[in-house]
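Let's do one together. I've listed all components of the complex below, 223 residues spread over two lines.
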Amino acid sequence: DAEITQSPRHKITETGRQVTLACHQTWNHNNMFWYRQDLGHGLRLIHYSYGVQDTNKGEVSDGYSVSRSNTEDLPLTLESAASSQTSVYFCASSWDLNTEAFFGQGTRLTVV
Amino acid sequence: GQSLEQPSEVTAVEGAIVQINCTYQTSGFYGLSWYQQHDGGAPTFLSYNALDGLEETGRFSSFLSRSDSYGYLLLQELQMKDSASYFCAVRSAEAARQLTFGSGTQLTVLP
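Okay, and this is what the predicted structure of the assembly comes out as:
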């Protein structure tokens, strides 16, 4: 069955370190997204991509970057982790913008 | 700027009907979505309304009034498994057609 998977599910890292969170989907969706979820804020968009070599900044993109070298993967990189980036990160994908988005199981990141 | 408002908590008993409201402010509105999220889980899609009116999918229905910038999610015949957080999300030109989520409503279903 097609799916979207994130790894790792949990990570603890130190302030200042570079961290990369992986997202892989097997639906062949062109659209992929990264969100963070914090108490009281719902889901906030970090970056999104409409296809290979396309990336766009979302609402809370500072301190994050993404790259899209193939259809299946959209890794999220924290260039220099900060305590404010402690959060749960969700990756999602969709066929088009008017259809449902499928979410991964999330990565809980703690920056100490 | 955009804003969405939904109640933070709702409590109801098994078998009852509950309505979760969502009001929004945005420009270039395309549609309103609803997602369900159980504790520790991934958000899952429930519905999408682009036009005014009621959309029904089993026990769940979603309503949209574009003129009032208002929508709601109606859950009927509540079951314990419906205890979860429910998020409304708008898609708008103001956000480059991306989803902007509300802060979520925690629904607790009591036996």
